[in-house]
Specification:
By secondary structure, the chain is mainly beta. The chain contains 2 helices and 18 strands.
Length: 292
């Protein structure tokens, strides 16, 4: 995991800027993603969307973004996405899923140039876990329409389709006001770090050398401008499956480590778990996020 900045002094960095081993996803999925990437290449390179800081946020120790889903309405309460290990009450335990927890956490809203233009506030933790994925979703006290009207800033849309290997991406850190540009190198069947295990994680190419404090940054597909993952970890010291040194585990249990390589957790699963009004519904058809 990339360390939350404050936690770094206490070795709490679950989403640090390290690099970890690479593992292949199940062959059927890998084949599908490769075919999709090939098809996209055959039709020409898609236009690159301008990716800036608008809609990203800074937390006290991490990064994040104001997000919406394809079916979200302007009048819905806005949501902020960051990592599970950025939760202000501490890392969720393996197997733990938190929903509906009261929160008054504040977030610095950034404009396109990275200037802080407002302080947004949460009223609850909608969902948080470090099991299978590494996400926390906060509900804010303001709607998308109110934020847009007051500050001229729109939320980032979370894609509801699986990302594709080879896609050009940007990791946008609201904490550091810094972006990292690279490509999706591939997908990891299981990414293990300390007591936590994540499924089907995104492995970056080496150019995305993210650091502590970038935890929770949105990973944006530069072709669509949509969020496809949330930055969360890297193998910092070449160790095997320890905190700050995740390892890749394939379907046969083979372990690989890649010092200096960084990772993210896919977000395409999230939209299916939200109903009208941005209401969490873990029993909705197609929702596969871990349940409490």
């Amino acid at each position: 995991m990339r360390k939350p900045l404050v936690a770094a002094l206490f070795a709490l960095a679950v989403a640090g800027a390290g690099a970890a081993p690479a593992v292949a996803e199940p062959q059927s999925e890998a084949t599908a993603h490769t075919a999709s990437a090939t098809a996209k290449a055959s039709t020409g390179t898609p236009a690159v969307k301008a990716v800036d800081f608008a809609g990203t946020v800074s937390l006290s120790n991490c990064s994040g973004s104001v997000i919406r889903f394809p079916k979200s309405a302007d009048g819905d309460p806005a949501l902020v996405l960051t990592n599970g290990h950025c939760l202000e009450t501490g890392f969720p335990d393996p197997g733990e899923v938190i929903t509906g927890q009261s929160s008054s956490r504040s977030f610095g809203l950034l404009n396109s140039s990275g200037s802080r233009v407002a302080t947004l506030r949460a009223n609850k933790v909608v969902y948080s876990t470090m099991t299978d994925t590494d996400i926390t979703i906060y509900q804010l006290t303001r709607t998308y329409a109110q934020i847009k009207s007051s500050y001229g800033i729109s939320a980032l849309t979370v894609s509801d389709t699986h990302p594709v290997a080879g896609t050009a991406i940007k990791v946008v850190s609201g904490y550091w006001k810094r972006t990292y540009s690279c490509n999706i190198d591939g997908f990891v069947y299981r990414l293990k770090e300390g007591d936590w295990t994540w499924k089907d994680s995104v492995r970056y190419t080496s150019a995305c050398n993210t650091i502590g404090g970038t935890s929770g940054s949105p990973v944006i597909d530069t072709g669509t401008g949509k969020v496809v993952a949330v930055n969360n970890t890297g193998n910092e010291n070449g160790e095997r499956c320890t905190v700050d040194n995740p390892c890749e585990v394939d379907q046969n249990g083979n372990v690989t480590i890649h010092e200096g390589i960084n990772y993210a957790e896919e977000t395409y699963l999230i939209p299916a778990c939200f109903a009208g009004g941005n209401t969490l519904d873990l029993n909705a058809s197609g929702c596969t996020l871990p349940k409490p």
